[in-house]
Specification:
Length: 195
């Protein structure tokens, strides 16, 4: 069984999609064993609690020193015997020590068709604002491996969605988010299906 730790910062709808897939038996040979949040107020923590999944808050408040924060995350990942790290709305850049320790075993969900509309500062509603400003006919979501760059790792899976006449950043974000909820569990299923 592949042991997954999901890292979150906010509402946790992507975490919920992964939990639902695991409970429906469609996540392959994988289950969520831990949730790490960078934010004590993240609603994602409620979602974890409701499904009996242990969680821990490791953020700037709890660990102001970056080295200690990295150490705490590594300890939590190790303590849960994590095989695969899933970033789902996690808003901090991972430290190199973490990426080295879990090389090619960290994936992220990004709300655009990478390599376009990715990189530093391209997160949340800003992504969809930029897509509309660029006059794109379509957008989408990407699951990719995490490397030392920002949104630069090898792409695992993408789903395209149309940009519609009259779209606002919010209406586009909602359409892309639905695609995220489909491809994140699917990417995990493909990565972890028992050979
Ligand atoms: C979503 O917009 C997603 O694109 C990005 O983080 C945001 C929040 O996701 N990955 P969630 O609802 O907290 O999963």
């Amino acid at each position: 069984m592949t042991r997954i730790t999901v890292m979150v910062s906010g509402g946790g709808t992507n975490l919920q999609a992964v939990i639902d897939a695991a409970e429906a038996g469609t996540l392959g040979d994988a289950s969520v064993v831990l949730v790490i949040s960078s934010n004590a107020g993240a609603y994602a923590l409620e979602r974890a609690a409701r499904h009996g999944i242990p969680s821990v808050v490791i953020g700037r408040e709890e660990y102001p020193d970056p080295e200690e924060r990295t150490g705490a995350i590594l300890d939590a990942l190790k303590g849960a015997e994590t095989d695969l790290v899933v970033l789902a709305g996690y808003m901090s850049v991972l430290p190199p020590a973490l990426i080295r320790a879990y090389r090619d075993r960290i994936i992220n969900i990004h709300p655009a068709l990478l390599p376009k509309f990715g990189g530093m500062g391209m997160y949340g509603i800003r992504v969809h604002r930029a897509v509309l400003a660029a006059g794109e006919a379509e957008s989408g979501a990407t699951v990719h491996f995490v490397d030392e760059g920002v949104d630069t790792g090898r792409i695992i899976l993408q789903e395209r969605v149309p940009v519609l006449e009259g779209d606002s950043p919010e209406t586009l974000a909602a359409r892309v988010l639905e695609a995220e909820h489909r491809i994140l569990p699917e990417a995990i299923r493909r990565l972890t299906k028992a050979d």
